[in-house]
Write a structure and sequence with these properties.
It is built from three helices and four strands. By secondary structure, the chain is α+β, with helices and mostly antiparallel strands. It has a single domain, classed as 2,3-Dihydroxybiphenyl 1,2-Dioxygenase, domain 1, CATH 3.10.180.10. The protein has a four-stranded mixed β-sheet, covered by helices on one side.
């Protein structure tokens, strides 16, 4: 997680992720519900690119494309967000998947 300002102040905080095939800046929109947003976008003809993913103590996000193929993210804030699979991998070097971007097992996989 990258923090650019004081706690509780608006800012451009974000995260750094492992380099992927995406070679562009991806705008992310704050939403009340990732699930409802994904449903609305896919009903309108957009596509889910990366399913709802947990960032513990931060919230949830997903990546989608609109009907013209433009990539964007949706982010739901939830300070109580927890990784449902964390107990399964519990920091193991062999994480079962990319289900959570910031738990210890995911971070170990990106090294």
């Amino acid at each position: 997680m990258v923090t650019t300002g004081a706690e509780g102040m608006p800012g451009i905080n974000g995260g750094l992720m492992k380099n992927t095939d995406v070679k562009t800046t991806t705008n992310t929109i704050a939403v009340d519900s990732v699930d409802a947003s994904v449903e609305a976008v896919t009903k309108a003809g957009g596509k889910l690119v990366m399913p709802k993913t947990t960032i513990p103590t931060v919230g949830y996000f997903a990546y989608l494309t609109d009907t013209e193929g433009n990539l964007f993210g949706v982010m739901q804030t939830d300070k109580n967000a927890k990784c449902a699979r964390l107990a399964r991998c519990n920091g193991a070097r062999a994480c079962p998947g990319a289900h959570c971007v910031s738990n210890p097992c995911r971070m170990a996989r990106i090294e």
